[in-house]
Each structure stands twice: as structure tokens, then as C-alpha cells.
Amino acid sequence: MKEKKFIETKLKSKKVFSGKLLHVFMDDVKLPSGGESTREYIKHQGAAVVIPIMDNKILLVKQYRYPTQQVMIELPAGKIDPGEDELTTVQRELGEETGYTSDKIFRLQPIHPCIGYSNEIIHLFFATDLYESNHEPDPDEEIENVLLKLEDAIEMIYSGKITDSKTIIGLFWAERLMKDKKLRDRFLTE
Amino acid sequence: MKEKKFIETKLKSKKVFSGKLLHVFMDDVKLPSGGESTREYIKHQGAAVVIPIMDNKILLVKQYRYPTQQVMIELPAGKIDPGEDELTTVQRELGEETGYTSDKIFRLQPIHPCIGYSNEIIHLFFATDLYESNHEPDPDEEIENVLLKLEDAIEMIYSGKITDSKTIIGLFWAERLMKDKKLRDRFLTE
User: Are residues A37 and A68 in the same domain?
Assistant: First the structure.
């Protein structure tokens, strides 16, 4: 694809906020039209999310999300620690958040949650054969397991009770994988 | 649901960056465990995204996204202007981005793209009966229409060519709506 005509070129980059979590940048860019503009965005270290299957159900978690001021039902997920392999992130976060982990983990396709103002990428995985983990829970996280039949979880998307985008994508992927042998052969083989 | 045990209470809120697009806050919070922590997040005005059906295909757009440094294929979407009704946002953004708009627009369920660090909500709509719009394109946006068969768009999710989360969710919804009359009766009635 000839994409040159779309591309914005960096002229100058400035870090405008650096917190414990968020690193915010404001760049001057040259537009393909020749004009100039500014772009504000977050640099993020990336994250991983997993669809864990337990007893033919989906293992989700419930936790409070301060930015949305809501208790939300989500797939287990977390940020990639510096230098950490994404598969390790998944095993660790699954263990810390649910008390279970897995060695049967399959990679699906990554997603960009927030392309308007963040470079975050979330790597998506599918896990079976869960077993009790010896990962310690994060003492700062109040979190609870929610084991749902897939059809009940999907209904919670339709009724607006599950609104987290990575979770919606994971649940839709899960259903497709369950129904479609070709897709399983494509993604769930070692 | 008794959710009290999860909830984090605001102690102090501080605006740490205010740009043209991003408004970043850092709050001190009291954790349900009794401890204290800080939460960094973005306040966002909300957005709307639409699944536009044209000639039995899906009308997407291609544009450069500076934060991810990629040309991305997406459903038409945009931020809600202050005081604007979400349906008006959809009609306007669809017109500005694709040159087509619609008066047959149906509301699905909203999504939270980025619950870890943003309060953004994206309202999701489904549009049929497109017609040429008189909305002027945004001169700062280099954007191009991409009309795809639904199955080809879904294959682009599987092959990692479509990674934008709101777009993946919209395409999965679209397929479900096409296949499931009950779901159409639930969401696509006036």
C-alpha cells in the first residue's frame, strides 16, 4: 500500500507530563497537506489480556476502575513489566488476579485500544488447562473472580453490563473460536 | 450488587496537564483496604463510532494515526462536540469522514476503550440507507474510504491488519446483527 500521502512527520517532540503511570507527549508535526499541527498522546509500555477457559466457562474478574468510577467486569489483564515477555505477563497477571494460571496459552491478534491518543498495544491470548497459581495477589488491588458461561457474558455485552473494549473483543473471539474449527486450527495449535 | 468493598474514594484531585486534546489528572485516593494511592487518568468528552452499511458492505476509512505511527483502517468515528447530541456527532463525523451520511441510525451499546487511564466512553451506532452528505471534510484530516465485504473485514482482524478496538467491536457486532434476527429485532427497530 502506498501510504506516504497519509503520513504525518515529527518536527519536535516534548514530554509534557511524566507520572508513575502516564507519560504524555506533545509533538509538532508536518501534515501531508504541507501544514503543521500538534499531536498530544500517551506513550504506554503495552499490556496483555487473556481469555481463560475454566470448566467450559470464562474466568473474568470484577474490580473498581477509578477513571470510569465503576466496578467493571473484565478479562484478566495487565501491563507488561520492563523487559518482560508478553506470555510471562499473561501468566503472572492471570495468577495475581484470579489465583489460577496456565501453561497452555495461545496467541491471538493484538489490539490498539485507544489510537486517538495512546500508542498502547494489548496482546490478546487464549488460555486453557488452568491450575492454581502461586502468584501473590497485588495488595493494592481489590479484585474478585467471576466465572460466567460464555452466552451469559455475551448477553452482558448486549445489555450494556460489560463495556470494557478488550473484554468485549475477547468474548467475541472466544465465541468464534468455540464455533469455528478452522479458526481453532489456525490459532489454538502448538 | 454490593460493590462498596471495591470502591476507591477521591481525597484530592489535581489537573497536571491541560492541552488542546488531553486533560490529565492525578488524584489521591483512599483504597477499600484503608491504604492510600494515586490514580492518573485522562478526562475525555466522549466519542461516537458508527457501522455504516453501504451496498451490503461496510464503509470504513483509512487514516494515519500519529500515536501508533500507522495508517489504520477504522470505522468512522469522532469526538462529541460540547453540548452535541451523540446522534448528531455520528451524522456529522460520518459526513465529514466519508462524504455520506444517514438518517437511519440505530444505537447499540457503548464501550469503554481504555479503562486503565481514561474515562472515555464511545457510543456505538449502526447506520443504513446512506446518502451523499453536504458536510465539509476536516482540512486537517487526510482520510480515504475503504468499502469492504464484512467477511473480508473480519479476515483482516484475524490477520492482524485491523487492530483498532472500536472497529473490531463494530465489525463483530455487524456480523452478529446480520446473522441473528432476534438481535436485529432488539437493536435495529425504530
Answer: no
Q: How far is B103 from chain A (nearest CA, A)?
A: 23
Residues of A in contact with B155 (CB under 8 A): none
Compute how many other C-beta atoms are within 10 angstroms of the C-beta atom of residue A59: 23
Q: Both A57 and A127 in a single domain?
A: yes
The pTM score is 0.97
β-strand B122-128 against B47-54: which pairing, if any? parallel
Dmax over CA atoms of chain B, in Å, equals 58
* Whether the Cβ atoms of residue A166 and residue A77 lie closer than 8 Å to each other: yes
ipTM of this model?
A: 0.97
Tell me the per-residue pLDDT of B73-124, one tens digit each, with 9 for 90 and over: 999 999 999 999 999 999 999 999 999 999 999 999 999 999 999 999 999 9
Q: Which cell numbers hold the place of A27? A: 509533538
- What is the rounded CA–CA span in Å between residue A118 and residue B114? 9
The SS3 call for residue B30 is strand
Q: Are residues B91 and B16 in the same domain?
A: no
Residue of A nearest to B177 (CA): A158
* Residue A58 and residue A93 in one domain: yes
The whole-angstrom separation of Cα B171 and Cα B176 is 9
The answer to whether the CB atoms of B166 and A163 lie below 8 A apart is no
B34 and B104 in a single domain? The answer is: no
Query: Is B119 found in the same domain as B157?
Result: yes
